[in-house]
Write a structure and sequence with these properties.
CATH superfamily: PPM-type phosphatase domain
Order of helices and strands: EEEHHEEEEHHHEEHHHE
Radius of gyration: 18 Å
Strand content: 25-35%
Helix content: 25-40%
CATH architecture: 4-Layer Sandwich
Shape: globular
Number of domains: 1
Strand order of the largest sheet: 1-10-9-6-7
Structural class: alpha+beta
Low-confidence stretches: none
Number of helices: 8
Mean pLDDT: 94
CATH topology: Phosphatase 2c, domain 1
Number of strands: 10
CATH class: Alpha Beta
Amino acid sequence: MAAGRRLRTAQLATQSDEDRCFIAKHGVVVLDGATAHRASAGPSGGDYASVLGAILAEALDHGPHQLSLVEILERAIAQAIEVLQLEKGARDSASCTVALARFGEADTVDLLVLGDSTIAVGSAGGSVEVITDTRLDEIGLPEADEYKSRLVRGCGYDEIHRHILSNLQKRQQRWRNRAGGYWIAATEPAAARHAMIMRRLDVQWLVLATDGVSDCLETLGISWQDLADADYTGLANYLRRCHAWEAGVDPHGSLLPRAKRHDDKTVVTMRRTQLEG
């Protein structure tokens, strides 16, 4: 029996529509473009994610196979900067999170996470490992605490909330891609060197998800295993269930404080299968 892989995807976009996913022959790319809470004349986070994701997918299938995921991402960011004509090192440019999986021989998978998208890994032994990058949250910016506190108090998504988010984004940009801050795909290719990377053996399944999915799973009692086991219809239903809960149960963010009532939701699952041969 030879090993194969079954891939499934589901997406539920909001008005911003800044999530992107790419399925390559040898891997998967999931990106979450950052929503701009302040006026910007340049490309959006979704524009940036589209360009970067296409470059990454091409590199996974046709680039030098000896390159590490870090090297692939570093080169891809440099190319995206050139394609979009961005200023290298600019802190107020478009950006996106990155979750990468590259399939190796048998059940070996190389993984990379940069930013708050998540990869969950199910092993042959039944264990589940959840990999995400929490460095932005760990900075502990006061504006983040302020907007969440207001939501808990029932203030909702008002003009003050939007003003706080604008100030928060401005402050976050000061910490972007610098020591002691956080790292993200934007205008500094070397940010790739600070990604979380790992190789896993005996992988039975993977789930790659943006934070619009991962943030609501625990609240709704949905496990990573549930997502991994779902078919296309099941995956789409899980995303609709999250959206419906946000709209009907927690429209003002008081139960699950979050920057927006709804965020884009993207999930890709990979499960190892057995092929006759």
